[in-house]
Amino acid sequence: MLVHAVRAMAASRAVSLVVVVAPPDDAAEVKTLIDSHALPERTEFLVVPGGDSRQESVRLGLDALPPGIDIVLVHDAARPLVPVDTVDGVIEAVRDGAPAVVPALPLTDTVKQVEPARTPGEPEPVVATPERARLRAVQTPQGFDRATLVRAHETVTDNVTDDASMVEQLGLRVVVVPGHEEAFKVTRPLDLVLAEAVLTRRRLNDGF
Q: Is 75 among the domain residues?
């Protein structure tokens, strides 16, 4: 999954450097893994040890960036199949002036807001039904103006769900661009089956 996620970023001609933030004890192993899989010659990569939280790991990745990089993407290795068009769409929106950009899809299911159960398995009362047309399921990579993301990590510490939410807390604009169904998050056994099916189709159609 990690190799596919790195390749998904490297597939964009706008991406010149991929910083992989690895578990602190596994950084050397991760570097060896990526070294053994060919990436486009135009794309460099670094492997840096991460921290105890997602936010700290992103900050350590930011710290590893050299000068001269003004647009930063934050991507989850758990979304290994994001198409290059989605990556390019995020980058283009940041280039057009948005300080923060997230790819997202409209929801197909009705969503209920509930009062969380105090005991696992206990029925949960519904307190509201948000208007589905105004909701989006957010994916990655999320894209940022570098200075904006650095500022967010220097000042925001509470209620952090993702990097875009940190920029929201600064009072800055976050925009949504179209996501893609194949940029799903692999978290359950069924997701692995779906990922294998996508990869099989890509190999047959595109030689991926």
A: yes
Give 162: exposed, middle or buried? Use CB within 10 Å, 0-12, 13-18, 19+: middle
Q: Could you tell me if residue 185 is inside a domain?
A: yes
pLDDT in tens, 86-116: 999 999 999 999 999 999 999 999 999 999 9
- pTM (predicted TM-score): 0.90
Residues 174-192: pLDDT tens digits? 999 999 999 999 999 999 9
Domain containing residue 20: CATH number: 3.90.550.10
Residue 22: C-alpha distances to residues 28, 32, 56, 112 (Å) = 9, 12, 12, 36
Sorted by sequence, the CB contacts under 8 Å of residue 164 that are 6+ apart come out as 100, 102, 138, 142, 174
Please count the structural domains in the chain: 1
